[in-house]
C-alpha cells in the first residue's frame, strides 16, 4: 500500500499535525521497557528522531496521537486492575508501517483488555519502512531490507514468555492483536514463528515466538491486487498457524476487504480455526471508538470468540 494514499485516507494530513519534540511516553505508572539489550538488529545509524504528533482529523469526535521515526522499540505492560485471567495480548498499532496510531489502536485497546482481566502489552515497533509497502510503479509489494517490525514482534513474544511468572501471565495463552499494518504484522508472526528473523540474543530468543491466537482488525498487505483473491506469498499459512479472528468493513477504502477474503480461505484450507466478520459500513481506522456503525461493537465479538477457543472463561 502506498504511503501517500494511507496518509490522505488514514491521517488526514490536511488537518495538520501538532508535533512534540520528545518521544512518546505512556501514562504514569506504566514504564516502557526496551526490547533489545543493545542496538536493534539492522538498525540505521543516526540520532533518535522519534516524534509524537496530535492528528487534527478526529475519529469518533476526538483527535488521536501518531508517533513516527521509532528507532528504539519498547514494550509497555498494562496489568489488569482486578481479576487476572492469565491471558496476555500483544498489541500492534497500525499506521502503514510509517507511523503508529499509539492511542487509537494502542493505549485505548489496553484500557479495554485490562478491564476484562487480560494483560495488555503495547509494542512500539520500529517505523518507518519496517514492513512491506505497495509500490504503484511496479504494482507490487516490496519487502523491507530489514524486517524490523517482525523482529520486534518475535523478540517481544519471547520476552513475554520468559517473564511470564513475573507478570502473572500464562505462557500458553499469549496472543496478538493488530490493526491495519499491525494486522499484517499479526499475520506475519502467525506464519513466521519457527525461526527468528535475527540472530538470537539471549534466553528470550529460546522461548516460543508462536502466538496462541491472533486477532486481525482491518488488516493490510495480505492480498495481491490484480490476482483475484490471491494471498500474499510471504504469508505462508500452515496447520500450525494459530486460531485467528478477522474483522473488516466492505467499504474500507484503505485496506480493501479482499485482504481478509484472501486470508480466511487459506486458514480454513490449512485446518486453522478461524472466525471472520464482514460489515457493509465502517471504513478504516476506527479503533475501539464507538460510532453509529455496528462494526465498532467488535470488542464484544472478540470476547465471545476468546471464550469459544478456551482462552477466557465463558
Write a short abstract of this structure.
With 314 residues, this protein is α/β, with parallel strands linked by helices. It contains six helices and 14 strands.
Major β-sheet, in short? 8 strands, mixed
Portion of residues in helices? 10-25%
- Enumerate how many helices there are, as a single number: 6
Indicate the structural class.
alpha/beta
Number of DSSP E strands: 14
Distance between the termini: 39 Å
**Sequence stretches where pLDDT stays below 50 over 5 or more residues:** 1-16
Order of helices and strands: HEEEEEEEHEEEHEHEEHEH
What strand line-up does the widest sheet have?
Answer: 2-5-8-6-11-12-13-14
Rg (CA only): 18 Å
Strand content is 15-25%
Mean pLDDT: 91
Structural summary, described in words:
By secondary structure, the chain is of the alpha/beta class. Helices cover 23% and strands 22% of the residues. The protein has helices at residues 3-11, 103-115, 148-162, 181-191, 258-269, 298-308, and strands at 17-19, 33-34, 51-59, 62-68, 74-78, 88-92, 99-101, 119-124, 133-135, 140-142, 174-179, 214-217, 244-249, 274-279. The strands form three sheets. The protein has an eight-stranded mixed β-sheet with strand order 2-5-8-6-11-12-13-14, with helices on both faces. Strands 1-3-4-7 form a four-stranded antiparallel β-sheet. Strands 9-10 form a two-stranded antiparallel sheet. The radius of gyration is 18 Å and the shape is globular.
